[in-house]
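Lab notes, practical 5.
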Amino acid sequence: MRSEMRLSSPFLLCLAAALSSAFVVSPPHMWTKLILTHHWPLTFCSMEHCHANISYWTLHGLWPDKGIDCNSSWHFNSSQIEDLLPDMEKSWPDLLEPSSVAFWKYEWHKHGTCAAKAASLNSQHKYFSKALELYHKMDLDRILKTFNITPSEKYYTFSQIEGVIENFYGVKPKIQCAHPTKNADVQILGQIEICFNPDFTLLDCEKEFTLETITKKDWDISISVDKASGFRVCDHDMPVYYPKSVVL
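Output from the prediction step:
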């Protein structure tokens, strides 16, 4: 806004004061949202040419909304999460290399070291155990099945899927799809994100309006996450295919 422009109403003055306060209160290097990301193995493996025999939603990661690779010297050590490994192998599997810890190492370095800026997540065990706890608490796979959103040859509308999740959890998720070709007339359900405040209470995934969510740096980060996964936000008007077999 140009300096010569003036705020001409009490409402705008209040709004400006509120936004300024929000920017000051948020610590400059602290995340404000956690994203619990689930992916559908069949869609993922159709894109990545893997052969996972898994028919339930698995964890992709627990991602803070700010920061990537925050501490390269904090190396992943699977012995620190040894008690979690049986659950991780089932709930958070490496779909590309099932016998490897490479996926968990990658998630720790890229996202865990940033999440660890919060005291509640400041160790490898805290980070991975909290991700598993939230995954089981949300129980996304069961909720979708309970409300008759199941892998099928029929197509769903985007609003059917979003509505079930939003009505049950009381918050808006971020739902991402794969698009087989540029002019495809159907999209393939691939990834669902459910978001949390730093105190682990549920949060609308697109709710916040803070300095962290509008700076160019963080915009670039959010775009790179979507590109890295191969998914993008589903088209609200295009039919959604929820595959029960490899489709791409």
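Observations recorded by the TA: The chain has nine helices and eight strands. The longest helix spans residues 10-25.
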